[in-house]
Specification:
By secondary structure, the chain is of the alpha/beta class. The protein is 38% helix and 18% strand. It is globular and about 70 Å long.
């Protein structure tokens, strides 16, 4: 992330008027109340009688009061006294968790749709994995407080090799041929306002190395795909902050890695022929899946852990791409999606992912998906730091709602509910360099919280049972949340503005609305 951007995100809006020191600690009543004099006239909100979930430890702290002033938590404690004049919200029987993060989204619709759906689903932070002027505008307006939405960290345009996978009629990509064009691309995306550089699958090793070197010079970090021609150990050694999806990692843990690498280098493409890449990649993935090496995996996963290279599995995306014949939209969320978007989802699925599949690939759908799940279980078992991300824009996904699918899929793959929640709270805060501000319910931290009607540690599906959301200290009550969703439902029935992007697909696919 741009260093100046990180400083802006971490800047405190309210002075350090802290009521209780330490995690969930409560001292004498006089000591708890007296520091409030330093808050001035800033209103205080008191969340009372709540069970606060400590995601880092899995502990349930019952009968807690959480005091909020401005955008900060100023006190957390058992039966903490509510200051005179505070607005008290009784949360008896409710559970409070840190705000959730989706670390792989794409801007799909308008500012009346995407940010509202994300907040209504408890997402208080999102990482947009392909930037454009619209996403940069949303980021800046949410930071300024003029647009209600989650905190946004926005990447660059996709930087890919030549020929790129993407049809320029579908998505704008910066195509680089060599070190010089790679460095120029990094300088360009910094000037455009990117918080980090997004790298893609068809970069040459030389261009990839040049991007990292130039990004360091420009004060930017790098995240994205593991390129086909660069091994995962090389990706981690280069300093890539996160690896999106798990297909590239799987290709680096085969007992026949030399053959896997030979076949990857033999892939041939024309510009924009994503479908041809998928068709050529599948048999290579199948070989790697069936030659998975425990010793090789232990080595590669160990390197990822030691270098703190995060992995964003995006199981929501892999499920659709691995099993396109077995997935479908959720009828309950269709009212939040434009008819045009659904049409584009169908187009993308049929033309980019399903077209030209041989019979053996069709027959392997469920086996490939089972392999992905086992793979993610191994990542957790080896202590690789995991980030929750959905790649919202993939067919059938709906902003915000998709993160709850991802949490459920992570647990289905073998993670505990606590591990899944950690990937959506603690790890994103660490990744963004904001552990002092986000990721837990503690004094001095930004008041990004989700109030649930049921315990997510008992059943991860309970993250869907949202009572209310607090974003930077602003309470979105149950009534306000219902209105947010109703406004989105109305907005998607209206014509989109000319030129607006209203749909997406894997890793940023979208078609301009005409």
């Amino acid at each position: 992330m741009n260093s100046s951007r990180r400083q802006f995100l971490a800047r405190t809006a309210v002075g350090a008027a802290v009521v209780a020191g330490g995690s969930f600690a409560a001292g004498p009543a006089s000591a708890l109340i007296s520091p409030l004099a330093g808050v001035g006239n800033t209103p205080i909100t008191a969340l009372t009688n709540a069970t606060v979930i400590d995601v880092a430890t899995g502990r349930r702290n019952r009968h807690q009061t959480v005091l909020i002033s401005g955008d900060r938590i100023i006190g957390v404690g058992r039966n903490l006294p509510v200051p005179r004049g505070a607005t008290a919200i009784d949360l008896t029987g409710k559970f409070v968790i840190p705000g959730l993060a989706d670390m792989h989204v794409h801007a799909l619709d308008t500012d009346r749709v995407d940010p509202a759906l994300q907040l209504a689903n408890g997402l208080t932070t999102v990482r947009v994995m392909s930037g454009d002027p619209r996403a940069y505008d949303w980021r800046d307006r949410t930071d300024a407080g003029t647009l209600l939405g989650p905190r946004m960290v926005v990447g660059s345009q996709i930087i890919d090799g030549d020929p790129t996978l993407w049809d320029p009629n579908l998505i704008k990509v910066l195509v680089v041929q060599d070190e010089a064009t790679a460095r120029a691309a990094v300088r360009q995306v910094k000037a455009e306002g990117a918080d980090f550089v997004k790298v893609y699958s068809r970069l040459s090793p030389a261009a990839y190395r040049a991007i990292h070197d130039e990004a360091r010079r420009q004060g930017l970090t790098v995240a994205g795909h593991g390129p086909d021609k660069v091994s995962i150990p090389e990706v981690a050694a280069a300093g890539q902050r996160s690896i999106e999806h798990i297909h590239a990692i799987g290709l680096s843990v085969s007992s026949q890695e030399a053959e896997v690498r030979r076949r990857l280098l033999a892939i041939t493409l024309k510009t924009g022929d994503y479908n041809a890449w998928f068709r050529q990649l599948h048999p290579i993935e199948w070989l790697a899946a069936n030659t998975y090496s425990k010793s090789r995996a232990a080595d590669v996963f160990g390197q990822l852990k030691r270098r703190d290279t995060r992995v964003t599995p995006t199981l929501t995306m892999h499920r659709v791409l691995d099993m396109p014949d077995y997935t479908a939209p959720d009828p309950a969320t269709l009212k939040y999606v434009r008819a045009d978007t659904m049409g584009t989802f169908e187009y993308v699925l049929e033309n980019l992912y399903k077209a030209n599949r041989p019979a053996e690939e069709i027959a392997r759908q469920q086996q490939m998906w089972a392999y992905r799940q086992r793979f993610v279980k191994e990542l957790f078992a080896h202590g690789v730091p995991i980030l929750t991300g959905t790649d919202t824009g993939t067919p059938w996904m709906v902003q915000g709602f998709a993160l709850h699918d991802e949490l459920e899929l992570l647990v289905g793959a073998g993670a505990t509910p606590q591990q899944a929640l950690r990937a959506a709270t603690v790890e994103p805060a660490r990744f963004l360099g904001m552990s002092d501000d986000l990721g837990s319910v503690e004094p001095r931290k930004i008041a990004d919280l989700v109030v649930l009607d049921a315990d997510p540690l008992t059943d991860i599906r309970n993250t869907r049972r949202i009572h209310s959301v607090i974003t930077r200290g602003r309470v979105i009550s149950p009534t306000a949340r219902t209105q947010l969703l109703a406004d989105v439902e109305a907005a998607v029935q209206e014509p989109a503005a000319a030129g607006a992007v209203v749909a997406g697909g894997c890793c940023g696919t979208h078609r301009p609305h005409s």
